[in-house]
Write a structure and sequence with these properties.
The chain folds into 2 domains: 204 residues, Medium-chain alcohol dehydrogenases, catalytic domain (Quinone Oxidoreductase, Chain A, domain 1, Alpha-Beta Complex), CATH 3.90.180; 137 residues, 3-Layer(aba) Sandwich (Rossmann fold). The chain contains 11 helices and 17 strands. The strands form 4 sheets. Strands 3, 4, 5, 8, 9, 16 and 17 form a 7-stranded mixed beta sheet that branches. A 6-stranded parallel beta sheet has the order 12-11-10-13-14-15, sandwiched between helices. Bound molecules: zinc ion (2 copies).
């Protein structure tokens, strides 16, 4: 029997950017008969909270989000309906699937055909240009959701869909090989702690940079080969060079929001090093030495989330138990207080909200 779909649902809504998050329980649910071909309706289990959601709520990015806004883009739910006349659906009713930042890509434009679905000319962004995962029900797209393998709890999978995917792709495209040194500034944060694990799974050596005892313990427990505390280290560049026997690191995956994290990387990378830029600070600019970027043959590469196959790879590695999200659970109604803590940089790992 088809599950009962309610007419209204609970969701976290931002009426205008910069305003408060309100929990509302009268948000309409798109009914199965109203779904367009290719659309599916998901009953959400849980959703992670990402720094991007805070940027969306504040409206401080160069591209404005839609308002009113239902944020969220790393959610896991169950397919409860599929639009009539959908052909070749890779998912069926009852499947557990994930929703990513890239809610929809057309799979037909030049960028999509080249595998850069995240740069699709017809892209829809979850919790930014279309409603996101901070709701009990969500309309998504059968060709774009990520199937979640059995054996990984929904809460464990949620943050793989954004944070995990993002760092996995950056590492995958860093042109490094096993035993190469990778520097991870912000290694104890939401993206960073996953980057440490994916890097170790891929056989790289990790230099973790972050601040404080809690983050040091987290990074070391995840297998980081070296630790630098930026709050006490006087010269990070010199320290990276010391650890790498004077040569510098092969790559850096920079997830931090500060521009100094990027500038330093050019200095501590060895010749031919790759600077994978992953963080999305609202205003910071990249102030790197052109002389040394050229002289050292440094590659600076912007790496923006990932395509559907990157997501499948990232989630399979996590489902195999090789990468674990360090998270705490809370309820959807706690979103406002989670944003406060996120804004103050006080969250080690990730927060996953369960639907009520
Ligand atoms: Zn995100
Ligand atoms: Zn496209």
């Amino acid at each position: 029997m088809a599950p009962q779909i309610p007419k209204t649902q609970k969701a976290a809504v931002v009426q205008k950017t910069g305003g408060k998050v309100q929990i509302k329980d009268d948000i309409p649910v798109k009914q199965p008969e109203d779904l367009a071909p290719g659309e599916c309706l998901l009953k959400m289990h849980c959703t992670g909270v990402c720094h991007t959601d805070l940027h969306a709520a504040l409206g401080d990015w160069p591209i404005p989000p839609q308002v009113p806004l239902i944020g969220g883009h790393e959610g896991v739910g169950e397919v409860v309906a599929i639009g009539k006349d959908t052909v070749h659906s890779p998912v069926k009713i009852g499947d557990r699937v994930g929703v990513k930042w890239i809610a929809y890509s057309c799979l037909n434009c030049e960028q999509c055909r080249k595998g850069f679905e995240q740069n699709c000319y017809n892209v829809k962004l979850s919790g930014y240009t279309v409603d996101g995962t901070f709701s009990q029900y969500l309309v998504s797209y059968v060709n774009c959701v990520t199937p979640i393998p059995d054996g990984i709890p929904s809460e464990d999978a949620a943050s793989i869909l954004c944070a995990g995917l993002t760092v996995y792709r950056a590492l995958k495209y860093s042109e490094t090989v096993p035993y190469d040194w990778i520097v991870l500034p912000g290694a104890g944060g939401g993206l960073g702690h996953l980057a440490v694990q994916y890097a170790k799974y891929m056989g790289r050596r990790v230099i973790a940079i972050d601040g404080g005892e809690e983050k040091r313990k987290l990074c070391e427990s995840l297998g980081a080969d070296a630790w630098i505390d930026y709050t006490t280290c006087k010269d990070i560049v010199a320290e990276v060079k010391r650890i790498t026997e004077g040569k510098g690191a092969h790559a850096a995956v920079v997830t931090t929001a500060s521009s100094s994290g990027y500038t330093q990387a050019v200095d501590y990378l060895r010749d031919g090093g790759k600077l994978m830029a992953v963080g999305l600070p609202a205003k910071a600019t990249l102030d790197a030495s052109i002389f040394f970027t050229v002289f050292k043959s440094i590659k600076i590469i912007g790496s923006y989330v990932g395509n559907r196959e990157d997501a499948n790879e990232a989630i399979k590695i996590a489902a195999a138990g090789k990468v674990k999200v360090f998270y705490k659970c809370d309820k959807l109604s706690a979103l406002e207080s989670v944003y406060d803590l996120l804004g103050q940089g006080k969250i080690a790992g990730r927060i996953v909200l369960q639907m009520e």
